[in-house]
Every structure is written in structure tokens, then in C-alpha cells.
Specification:
- The chain has ten helices and nine strands.
- The strands form three sheets. A five-stranded parallel beta sheet has the order 2-1-6-5-7, sandwiched between helices. Strands 3-4 form a two-stranded antiparallel ribbon. It has a two-stranded antiparallel sheet with strand order 8-9.
- Helices cover 44% and strands 16% of the residues.
- The protein folds into two domains: 154 residues, Alpha/beta knot; 75 residues, no CATH class.
- It has 263 residues and is of the alpha/beta class.
Length: 263
């Protein structure tokens, strides 16, 4: 997968993305990072890319021309491939979430546009942007940090990026559920023991324990996500009801036998 980032601060994104998991994925060629400095495409001799907004107001606005020319520098090199989605990181956009990361990971190319100052001339946004995306209801200095968040989250969904292909499927939000608690050595620390089931070697019971803990944690901390999961997994609750009914029947039979022996 190829990330093309239009930004005024390419060094900021380069330092952030070329580390840890995403850095190794770039080295392996699983993903690529193309950083385009918008300032390189201004026609102003002083490399100026912003100006005052019409109608007045505080701050400066990024001009349309350098942004558009930076965009064209990417698309002309795609060699006949479909024009990719262009994502503008902006607080007025749709809130970024795990399902969106999974969806974007299916793209071959992704152009991410980072604004700065008071934003970007609306005319170029109307011309090139396909998606407005926000990482939360707060304001940042520019779009670079949100872009790095998106690149990290999307990259994890690309096959070959994670060392363990199951990791992306078991982490929080991968299926609406928050991740279950995890434990490592030693078996006892500060008077707290690792749950016995995790030491049992019984993979079926471990999986059941993890799902139960995920459900409990999600219901407590993110009831909105729990409701979404529950709506799509009614069969799970039906199986749970049948299992509990069998347990009750078994216990009732045991009690009857005990009573018969007493008689």
C-alpha cells in the first residue's frame, strides 16, 4: 500500500512513521511513504504558501495553487492507476475509527492532505478531496499528527505489516469489542496472580475466557460498542442461554439424585 502525504512538514511525518512497526513495514516494502512538500510547488519566490482570507478573520489560509500542484505531482506518477481517495484531515470530518482503517487498508494508494494555519482554500478542497476525516473533537496545529495516526492504524490492517497476522484481529475495536486483559511472566507479581485458565493450556477455555472478559470490559467502558456487537451477534447470546439451561438441568438432576439417596 502506498501513502502519499501532502504537507508543509514532511520531516515531522518522516520521523514519526519510519519507526517501530510502520518503519519495518516500509523497509520490507509492504507499505511505502511518499512525502510531498507543498511548499515546493508554490510559485511565490519567497516560498510563501498562505495568504489572508477574503472577508477578513484571524490567521492565514493555505492557497489553492500550491496544494493543487502538489496533488498533480502525485497523480501523474500513478501510471494509469485509478485516481486514489484524497483524505483531508480536518475537525469537521467523519470521526476516524477502526472499521474505517480496515476499509482504507484495501486501497492501493491513499493521498492524505494536511492543512495548517486556518485551513485551506475551499476551492481546491472541492476539486480534489474525496473524504474529510477527523481523529476527534479537538483542534490541533496542523494535520500532520492526525495523518500519522491514520497511517499507523491503516498500516496495521495491511497484510504483512504485523508479525502475527492474528494481532490485528484481536486488538480493541477490531470487531467492536475492547481487548481482553493480558498477562506475562511472572505468574505472580505484587500478590496478584495470572488467571488460572490462562495457564491451563486449554485453548478453547482460554478463547472463551478472553471473549467473556472483552464483553465485560466493553459493556462497562464502551456500552455503545457493546450494543453494536450484541446487535450483530444474537446467536452468541442464544448459545449462552442454551448452555445455561443445560447447566441448570444438570444441577437439578444432581440435586434430585442426592435427595433420592437421602430417602
Amino acid at each position: 500500500m502506498n501513502f502519499h502525504v501532502l504537507t508543509l512538514f514532511p520531516e515531522m511525518i518522516d520521523q514519526g512513521v519510519r519507526t517501530s512497526i510502520t518503519g519495518r513495514a516500509i523497509e520490507k516494502g509492504v507499505i511505502s511513504l511518499d512525502l510531498v512538500n507543498i511548499r515546493d510547488y508554490t510559485k511565490d519566490k519567497h516560498k510563501k504558501v498562505d495568504d489572508y482570507p477574503y472577508g477578513g478573520g484571524a490567521g492565514m489560509l493555505m492557497q489553492a495553487q500550491p496544494v493543487y500542484d502538489a496533488f498533480l505531482s502525485v497523480t501523474k506518477n500513478l501510471k494509469g492507476r485509478m485516481c486514489p481517495r484524497v483524505i483531508y484531515m480536518a475537525p469537521q470530518g467523519r470521526t476516524f475509527h477502526q472499521q474505517m482503517a480496515r476499509e482504507l487498508a484495501c486501497e492501493e494508494d491513499l493521498i492524505i492532505l494536511c492543512g495548517h494555519y486556518e485551513g485551506i482554500d475551499q476551492r481546491v478542497l472541492d476539486t480534489i478531496v474525496t473524504d474529510y476525516v477527523s481523529i476527534g473533537d479537538y483542534v490541533l496545529t496542523g494535520g500532520e499528527l492526525p495523518a500519522m495516526v491514520m497511517i499507523d492504524a491503516v498500516s496495521r490492517m495491511v497484510p504483512g505489516v504485523l508479525g502475527n497476522e492474528d494481532s490485528g484481529e484481536t486488538e480493541s475495536f477490531s470487531n467492536y469489542l475492547l481487548e481482553y486483559p493480558q498477562y506475562s511472566r511472572p505468574e505472580e507479581w505484587n500478590g496478584q496472580k495470572v488467571p488460572e485458565v490462562l495457564l491451563s493450556g486449554n485453548h478453547e477455555k482460554v478463547a472463551e475466557w478472553r471473549l467473556t472478559r472483552s464483553l465485560e470490559r466493553t459493556k462497562e467502558l464502551r456500552p455503545d460498542l457493546y450494543e453494536k456487537w450484541a446487535a450483530e451477534n444474537q446467536d452468541y447470546f442464544e448459545r449462552l442461554r442454551r448452555r445455561e439451561a443445560r447447566k441448570r438441568q444438570k444441577e437439578e438432576r444432581r440435586l434430585r439424585k442426592e435427595q433420592e439417596l437421602l430417602l
